[in-house]
Design brief:
By secondary structure, chain A is α+β, with helices and mostly antiparallel strands. Helices cover 44% and strands 28% of the residues of chain A. Chain A has one domain (11-202): CheC-like (Chemotaxis protein chec, 3-Layer(aba) Sandwich). In chain A, strands 1, 2, 3, 4, 5, 6, 7 and 8 form an 8-stranded antiparallel beta sheet that branches. In chain A, a hairpin with a 3-residue loop joins strand 3 and strand 4 (79-86). In chain A, helix 1 (11-36) packs across helix 4. Chain A is globular, with a radius of gyration of 16 Å. Chain A starts with 10 loop residues before the first helix and ends with a helix. The mean pLDDT of chain A is 87. Chain B has 161 residues and is α+β, with helices and mostly antiparallel strands. Chain B has a single domain (4-160), classed as 2-Layer Sandwich (60s Ribosomal Protein L30, Chain: A), CATH 3.30.1330. Chain B is 18% helix and 35% strand. Chain B has helices at 65-78, 108-122, and strands at residues 4-6, 11-16, 20-26, 30-36, 41-47, 86-92, 127-132, 138-143, 149-152, 158-160. Chain B has a 5-stranded mixed beta sheet with strand order 1-3-8-9-10, with no helix packed on it. Chain B has a 5-stranded mixed beta sheet with strand order 2-5-4-6-7, covered by helices on one side. Chain B is globular and about 45 Å long. Chain B starts with a strand and ends with a strand. The model of chain B has no long low-confidence stretch (mean pLDDT 92). Classes of the chains: A alpha+beta (206), B alpha+beta (161). Chains A and B meet through helix 2, strand 3, strand 6 and helix 5 of A and strand 3 of B.
Amino acid sequence: MNESGFEELNSFQMDVLREIGNIGAGNAATALAKMLDRKIDMKVPKIKVMQFEEVSEVLGDSEEMVVGILLGVLGDITGSIMFVLDMNATRLMVNNMFGKHTDVELEFDEMTCSAIQEVGNILAGSYLSALSTLTNLNIMPDVPCMAVDMAGALLSVPAIAQAKASDTVLYIENEFFDGHDSMLGDLFLIPDEGSYTILMKALGVA
Amino acid sequence: MENIIKVGMADWKVAAHPDALTTLGLGSCVGICLYDGKRKIIGMAHIMLPSSDLVRANANRAKFADTGIPDMVDAMLRMGSDVRGMTAKIAGGAQMFAYSSGSDIIRIGARNAEATREILAGYRIPILADDTGGTFGRTIEFYACDGRLMVKTIGHGVKTL
């Protein structure tokens, strides 16, 4: 890999990354489905190697108000994992967790925030534990932190963490849907540049 | 009809009357807006990190305050501007997430804003408005016609600086 980052991924490496996304997010979707007691579907993961200019628009509208849960990745690999939900999906999810009617207006009080962070914990934990099993590496999530703001502003945070080491950033994106095809959220794994190499080596494809 | 030109993260652009520059969803990054009122030339930089010192990946100079701002100033000079005629407005530098664990990116917003102020002071470019800090994102629009900076937020109002 050259100094400028991830630009030279070939289609085989892309497939491996997609498989990482599939296995991690598959486990995360199962955990989420158990917690919410409903069916959770996901799409084929998207592998996005971006210049920083493109990051804030990775979800489309960079000014859209969203909920973001960010966790550091610790252990043999480092990076970030981030779950982004739009306001509608957040309302559905939180009301579902508290057994309320799905139309109840959402208030970001302590209870709601800790519930949302717990979702982040469970998603990240199950994603990373699948990845850990797959690679035989020690990988775990740090404590979650949450923010409600513009999508672009939130998505820039894990990118800044990469900016010292690279001119490009790799986002492995998984979209989650609830049983009725409505979008639930986007889960991103953003490995540090060095960790990408470790992952590939652990999978025997370096 | 004015064009509104988008400036991405780790990017800078210059423009002249009647155009405007914008950057959407600024978080911990800082948006640096320079205005030459006499010639109605503007520049906007969207920097991610304070300094390119000791950084291995420093090919994209627009990422850093200490290289991005000078490059943008030079581009404005090439358009016929003069440093002595420039004024600055800055925004961003927020802390989007409250970290409980020690992290390298903690306080990056504040460090970006500090580095920006130092670099502008080096050019003796006065900062007429400084809307940095806080825990919320900002969208900024900067107009070459009058040097007006509009700052939009979610839940923290809209203001013109």
